[in-house]
Specification:
12 helices; mainly alpha; globular; 318 residues
Length: 318
C-alpha cells in the first residue's frame, strides 16, 4: 500500500501526449518538423562555424549572433528529438528527472535568448547613435560579460521555479497534454495548490521577457530618432538595413512565445488545445530554422564568407 501511495505522490514517469486531438496525424505532422529541425541544425552549425572561423566576423554584432545561434541549437535539440520519438515511435514515457531537466533547459534558454536579443539591440543602438565609441564600449571582454550575465540571470530565474515544481505532490494523473515538458504543464498535474507556481511564472515572465521587450523598444525608439535626424535618405536606409535582421528575429522570437504564454494561462477554452500545443511546438523549431536564413540573406559579409567557403571546398574536391 505504501508503494501505491508513494507512486501517487511522486510519479516515476510522466506521459507526453504529443499534440492532443491530432494523434492520428502525428506521422504526417512529424515530416515538416523533422525537415525544419534538420534545416535548423545545418543552418545554425554553418553560421556558427562561419563566425568562429572568419576573423573579420569577430565583431560585437556577430559575436552576439553566435551566442544566439548556440542557444537556438540547444533549444531545438532539447525538444524536437523527443517530439519526433513521440510522433514516430509513440515513446511517450519520460522520467520525472528528464521531464524536469527538459523544462529547465526550455525556460532557461528562452530567458538567455531574450537577454541576448537585448544585447543585440544595445549593439545596434551604440553602432548608430554613438558610432565613435562603438569599438571602445563593446570590447570582447565586455561582450563575454554580457553573455555570461544573460546565462546567470536565466539560471537565477529558472532554478527557483524548478524547486517549486519538485515540492508539489502529484496524483495518479501522469498525462501531460504536450509534446515536451514545461513548468506549468507539469505543475497542473499536482494535487495541491499551484498558486505559488502561477504567480512565480508570471513574475519571471514580467521580469525577464517583459522588461527585455521594454529595453528593446526604448533602444529602437532612440535608434529611430537618430536615423530620422540623418541628412540623406540613403544614409537613413543604410542605417535601418543594419537593424532589419534583428527586428525580424525579435518578431519571430517574442510573438509565438507571448502567444503561448498568455494562452496557456488565460486562454481558457477559447483556443483549441491542439492549436496552442502546435504553436508551442513550432516555436522551438521555426525561429532556430529561420534565424540563420534571415542573417544569411541580410548580411553581405556572412553571404560572401559562406560563398567563399563553399567555393574553397569545391576547389578542394576537384
Amino acid at each position: 500500500m505504501a508503494d501505491v501511495n508513494d507512486t501517487a505522490f511522486r510519479p516515476g514517469t510522466f506521459l507526453l501526449v504529443g499534440i492532443p486531438g491530432l494523434e492520428k496525424f502525428h506521422l504526417w505532422i512529424s515530416l515538416p518538423f523533422f525537415s525544419m529541425y534538420i534545416f535548423a541544425l545545418l543552418g545554425n552549425l554553418v553560421l556558427l562555424f562561419t563566425i568562429v572561423r572568419e576573423q573579420s566576423l569577430h565583431k560585437p554584432m556577430y559575436l552576439f549572433l553566435s551566442a544566439l545561434t548556440l542557444a537556438d541549437l540547444l533549444l531545438s535539440t532539447t525538444t524536437v528529438p523527443r517530439m519526433l520519438a513521440i510522433f514516430w515511435f509513440r515513446v511517450r514515457d519520460i522520467s520525472l528527472g528528464a521531464c524536469i531537466a527538459q523544462a529547465f533547459f526550455v525556460h532557461s534558454i528562452f530567458i538567455a535568448e531574450s537577454g541576448i536579443l537585448v544585447a543585440m539591440a544595445f549593439d545596434r543602438y551604440v553602432a548608430i547613435c554613438n558610432p565613435l565609441r562603438y569599438v571602445t564600449l563593446l570590447t570582447h571582454s565586455v561582450i563575454w560579460r554580457i553573455e555570461l550575465a544573460a546565462v546567470v540571470r536565466s539560471l537565477c530565474m529558472v532554478l527557483p521555479g524548478i524547486h517549486l515544481v519538485l515540492r508539489l505532490s502529484y496524483c495518479r494523473n501522469r498525462v501531460i497534454p504536450h509534446s515536451y515538458c514545461e513548468h506549468m504543464g507539469v505543475a497542473r498535474l499536482a494535487c495541491t495548490s499551484i498558486k505559488v507556481n502561477v504567480v512565480y511564472g508570471l513574475t519571471v515572465a514580467l521580469l525577464s521577457a517583459g522588461i527585455d521587450v521594454v529595453f528593446i523598444a526604448v533602444s529602437y525608439g532612440l535608434i529611430l530618432r537618430a536615423v530620422f535626424q540623418l541628412p540623406s535618405a540613403g544614409a537613413r536606409c543604410k542605417a535601418m538595413s543594419t537593424c532589419g535582421s534583428h527586428l525580424c528575429i525579435i518578431f519571430l522570437f517574442y510573438t509565438p512565445a507571448f502567444f503561448s504564454f498568455f494562452t496557456h494561462r488565460f486562454g481558457g477554452h477559447s483556443i483549441p488545445r491542439h492549436v496552442h500545443i502546435l504553436l508551442a511546438c513550432l516555436y522551438v523549431v521555426v525561429p532556430p530554422m529561420l534565424n540563420p536564413i534571415i542573417y544569411g540573406v541580410n548580411s553581405k559579409q556572412i553571404r560572401e564568407t559562406v560563398m567563399s567557403m563553399l567555393s574553397w571546398m569545391g576547389s578542394r574536391r576537384n
